[in-house]
Amino acid sequence: MAGLVEQAYEFADECHRGQKRVSGEPYIAHPLQTALFLVDLRLDVNTIVAALLHDVVEDCDVALDELASRFGTEVAKLVDGVTKLTKLDVRLQQSGSAESLRKMLVAMAEDIRVVLIKLADRLHNMRTLDVLPPEKRRRIAQETLDIYSPLAHRLGIWEIKWRLDDLAFFYLDEDRYHEISNMLAAKREERETYVGQVASRLREAMKVSNLTGEVVGRPKSIYSTYRKMERYAAQGKELSDIYDLYALRVLVDSKDDCYKTLGVIHQLWHPIPGQFDDYIANPKENMYQALHTTVICDGGSPLEVQIKTYELHEIAEYGVAAHWRYKEGRANDLRFEEKMTWLRQVLDWQREMAATDEFIESVKQDIFQDQVFVYTPKGAIVELTAGSTPIDFGYKIHTDLGHRCIGAKVNGRLVSLDTKLQNGDTVEVLASKLDRGPSLDWLNPNRGYVGSASARQKVRLWFRRQARSANIQRGRELLRRELRRLNQRLDDAEVLSLCNYDNMEELLANLGSGGITETQVGYRLAQARQEPLSPIVGGKPKLALSSPGSGISVLGVGDLLTRMAPCCNPIPGDSITGFVTRARGVTVHKQGCSNLANEDEPERIVHVDWGTTYELYPVRIRVTAYDRVGLLRDVTSAVSAEDVNIASVVTKEHPDGTVTMELTIYTKNLEQLGRLFAKLEGVRSIIDVTRDRSTIPLLTPN
Questions:
Q1: For this structure, is 285 an active site residue?
Q2: What is the largest CA-CA distance in the chain?
Q3: Which of 13, 44, 58, 418 is an active site residue?
Q4: For the chain, does the N or the C end have fewer beta carbons within 10 angstroms?
Q5: How far lies 572's CA from each of 240, 556, 563, 585, in Å?
Q6: Helices (H), 128-214
Q7: 584-631, pLDDT tens digit by residue?
Q8: Selected catalytic residue, list 59, 99, 159, 505
Q9: Are 393 and 422 in contact (CB under 8 A)?
Q10: 61, 15 contact by CB (below 8 A)
Q11: Element (DSSP H or E) covering residue 472
Q12: In what residue span(s) does the HD domain sit (predicted)?
C-alpha cells in the first residue's frame, strides 16, 4: 500500500511540474500538505492517494480513465468527486448555490471521504491565505466560517473545525484575534499550573477507586473563546464567569468507567447545578458522546470536565473520519449508519422539493445554523435548529406526531405553539387522538409557528399529499372568497391567465394545498380589469380628480422650501423660474419677471417646475361588520392611515346586529386599494370587505 502512495506522489509531482502557487512555492506542496493532514487523521490509503491527485484532473488535464487504470476505480471516483466540488466553489449567497450545495451533499452521501479531502484542501488554503488580496481573503474566510467549519462540526471533526475557525477569525478580525490570543497566553502559565494541580488530585482519587485513565488539561481555541466571551457579554457576565477556561479531559477504557469517574469527581468537588450533560446515553447527531460536568474546584474556581473513552475521543476529534479507522474487521458499522441519517434526510427533502429556494432554506437552517438541545419527557436529548418551536420538536420526533400536535408543555407548563424553545427545555407535545393534520397557518412565517425548514417542508408535503379532490374543493372556496372580496367577475380563462396556470384544477389544488397563498392569488386577480378606476357616469366620461404630488420641484427634487414671489404671483400653469435666497429657500417667479431680469447673480437662478400631479379615482367599497362602539372610528382611521380620502360614508344597521358601511373613497391605483383592503380586513369585528362596482354619482372634492 505504501508503494501506491509513493506512485501517486511521483505521478502528481510530474503532472504539476512547473506549476506555481500564488505564494511562489511549487504547486505540489498543496496536494502534499492536504494528504499529510489526512494521514494525521489516519484515513485509508485510497483517500491519501486521492488527496495527492485531487487537482491533476482540473489543472493538468489528466483523464479519469488514466487515473482508474493507474490507481484503481475507487481513487478515480474520489478524485472526480473532489474535482466537481472544487469547480462549484460553493457560495450560499450567489445564483446556482442550491445546485452547488446539492452536489456537495450528494457527494457526501455517495462517499463522505470526498468531503474530507475537500475540508483538508480548504484547511491548507486557509493556512496560505496571506498571499491573496485583502478582499479575497475576507471573502474566503467568511465562506469558511459559514460553510466549511459548520460542515466539519456536523461531521464531528473537531480537529478540522477549530483550525478552520481560528484561521478564518484571524483574517476577519485580526485585532480581536491577537487580543484574545495575548490574553490566553498571559494566563497560560497560571492556568497550566492550576490545571496540573487539580489533574494530579483527580488521578490520585481515581487510583484509590481502581480506575485507570489519562487526565489532561483541555486547550481552548481562540475563536471558541471569542464566541463564549460574546455570549457572556450579552448576558452581562465577566470573563471570569466562563466555566471552561479551566477545563480537564479524562479518557478511560470503557463507558462504565466514565460513569464511575463521574462519581469520583462529584465526591471530590461540588457540582454546579444545571451544568451536567450525558451525551453518552443521549449522543449528539454528529456522533459526539461524552459526559460533561462543571464543578466548584479548589479555590472556588469553576472547572469543566469532559469524560469519555479513548474510542469516543477519537470520534470526537475526527468524527466520521474515525469510521474508517475502526471499521476494519467489522461486517458493517450500524452506529455510523445511524449517526449519518441526518444527511440522508436532507437528500430525501431535496428530492421532495421542486424549488431550489426551499432546498437552500432547509440546508442553511437545518445544517449550517446554530442548534438548541432540548429534552423529551423521558430525558432523551433532541437537537433542533435555533428558533424552533414545539411543532418543530414534534416533527423531529415523528412526522405523525407533528401532524397531530394541538398543544405543548415546556418544563411542565402549557405554552403556545409559537413558543421559541431554549437550551435545556423539557418539551412534551400534546397530540390529538383524531387523525387530524397541520394548519395552513403553520406555513405563515409571520405567525412564527414553525422555525425549521424541515418541519415546514413536512407541513407542505402533508397538504400536497391530501386527496386531490379535497384540495381542489378547498382551493375553490378560497378563490371564490378572493373574487367576492375584490368584487371581480372573471371567467376561468381570465383567472388562469392572471395566475399563470394552464389548468384550473392544478391552480385550485395548489391554492388548497398551500402551494400558493390567498394573498398571492388576490394580488394577481387585482390586476384584472383596471378600467373601473376611470368609470363612466351617465354615458359620459367621469373626470378624475387631480391632486398635487410634491408642490414645487426644484432641479427635479420636490418638497424643498419654496415661496411664491409677491412681485409677480405665479399660479399653476405659468412658466416659472426659481431664485435661491439666503434665508428663505427658493422664491418662485414668473419667467420674464422684471426683478429677475435685473439680477446681478445669475448663478442663483435655478430651474423649477410645478410638482407632478397624480389622478385620484372614486371607488365605492362595502364593509360588513358586527356593530360595536368605535367601529366607524376604527374604519376611518384605517383608511386615513393609507393616505386615502373619504368622500362619503353611508351606514345601515341590520336587525341581526350587523352593520353595512358604504364608503366612497379616492384612490391613486389598484395597489393602494389592495393595501387598504388588507388594513380594513384587520379591523376588529369586520366580517367582509368588497368592492361595489355600481355607478358612482359625480362627486365634487372639498
A1: no
A2: 110
A3: 58
A4: C
A5: 72, 17, 13, 19
A6: 134-143, 149-154, 158-172, 174-186, 188-208
A7: 788 888 888 888 877 778 888 888 887 655 677 888 889 999 999 999
A8: 59
A9: no
A10: no
A11: helix 468-486
A12: 27-126
